[in-house]
Amino acid sequence: MEWIEQYIVNFDWYYTNYLTFGSRLLLVFVYLPVLVIVSFLIYRRLNWKRRLKIPVVISFLIIAYFAPVVDVMKTGLDMQYYCKKEHGLHVYKAVSVKGIFGVNQQAKKFLGMGFEYLEKEVKGKLYRFELVDGELDKFEIRELSSLYEGYFEDVFFDSNMRLITYGIRNRHTREIIAESKFYQAGGGWLDHLLPSFGPIIFNCNSDHKPGIGPLVKSALTPLKGG
């Protein structure tokens, strides 16, 4: 099974990616020595034959050592899957448009890419932005002209997983033509026991950053004339 193979082959994620440095120090230099001492005492107290005591004590040591980070192991498996399969920029179809609605991007920067207009909703009103003689012009409109719109979603799931999505879709059919997915994971319970200077967040090991800009460049081209 694929997830078991990933777990065995990529076991280094347990320490390297989803535990803070403080938690790693606590596990290795405090918790592990205590477990070794306890395991030794258990070994001495058991009135069993040696061939039985050794595997029992070793099993206890391994299970007890990994017990505090079971949640981190699950996070590691989840992030390995999502970072490999879904994280990043996905362009399903490229289209030519004069403009778009709802893109969370500076109007002047968007229009400077060659598009004719950008439509936005500001405080419940619809506005259209255009470049006139190199200057940004804004005026109110009654209805939208754009066939496509940009959107943003921020979803938390599985207790400590987060998915940030920027996308472009057809306003009428809701067909998604491009999306940017950015996955994050929170720290485990052990990390939250220790003092921290901010939220504990782990990202995919990737250069991809959330935002609408790369989507616009990849999925949209300015439509001239018509």
Q: What can you tell me about this protein's structure?
A:
This protein has two domains: 2-85; 90-222, no CATH class. The strands form three sheets. Strands 1, 7, 8, 9 and 10 form a five-stranded antiparallel beta sheet that branches. The chain has a four-stranded mixed beta sheet with strand order 3-4-5-6. A two-stranded parallel ribbon has the order 2-11. The radius of gyration is 26 Å and the shape is elongated. It has 226 residues and is of the alpha+beta class. The chain has eight helices and eleven strands. The protein has helices spanning 2-9, 13-16, 21-45, 50-66, 70-85, 107-111, 189-193, 213-219, and strands at residues 88-91, 95-97, 99-101, 117-122, 125-132, 135-141, 148-157, 161-170, 176-186, 201-203, 220-222. The protein starts with a helix and ends with a strand. Helix 3 (21-45) packs antiparallel against helix 4 (50-66). The model is unreliable at 3-9 and 11-15 (pLDDT under 50).
Give the topology:
Elements: H1 2-9, H2 13-16, H3 21-45, H4 50-66, H5 70-85, E1 88-91, E2 95-97, E3 99-101, H6 107-111, E4 117-122, E5 125-132, E6 135-141, E7 148-157, E8 161-170, E9 176-186, H7 189-193, E10 201-203, H8 213-219, E11 220-222
Parallel strand pairs: 2-11, 3-4
Antiparallel strand pairs: 1-9, 4-5, 5-6, 7-8, 8-9, 9-10
Helix pairs in contact: 3-4
